[in-house]
Amino acid sequence: MSSKPSKQRKYYFNAPLHKIGAMMSAHLSDKLREELGIRSLPVRKGDKVRVVRGDIRYRLKEGKIIKVDRKKRRIYIEGITRKKADGTEIPVPIHPSKVEIVEINRDDEERMKIIERRRAGEAS
């Protein structure tokens, strides 16, 4: 990867979908990191996350991910909303790097296989 910021931006904004999925990763909480033996995972709908950086109104709030928008590269978290001028509430888009995963959705067998494969790779 290039060290030039312009080339990094070009790569980021023109990346194919399978690369965007990897870019939309978040760190695991200390407890989860020790339990799973890996450092980070791509975020998925249903994961419980905690906002660790960004706007003071949303920092340290926890909630489940209700939507993952790969096109805009943002996630939407249950309970983190703002009011529009007409009074309706809309979810606030947050970048996945600004959150940490507190709890993962363990119902997804494919994801558990990915975790096992990565754990085996980390050990060697």
Q: What gyration radius follows from the Cα positions, in whole Å?
A: 16 Å
Assign an overall shape.
Answer: globular
Main sheet overview = 7 strands, mixed
Q: Which structural class fits the helix and strand makeup?
A: alpha+beta
Number of helices: 4
Report strand %: 25-35%
**Low-confidence runs:** none
Largest sheet: spatial strand order: 2-1-7-3-4-5-6
**Helix and strand run:** HHEHEEEEEEH
Q: Gap between N and C termini, in Å?
A: 25 Å
Mean pLDDT: 93
Helix content: 25-40%
Total strands: 7
Features:
124 residues, 4 helices, 31% helix, 32% strand, 7 strands, alpha+beta
Can I get a quick summary?
The protein is an alpha+beta fold and 124 residues long.
Report on this model:
- The chain has 124 residues and is an alpha+beta fold.
- The protein is 31% helix and 32% strand.
- The protein has 4 helices and 7 strands; from the N terminus they run ααβαββββββα.
- The chain has a 7-stranded mixed beta sheet with strand order 2-1-7-3-4-5-6.
- The longest helix has 15 residues.
- The protein is globular and about 55 Å long.
- The mean pLDDT is 93.
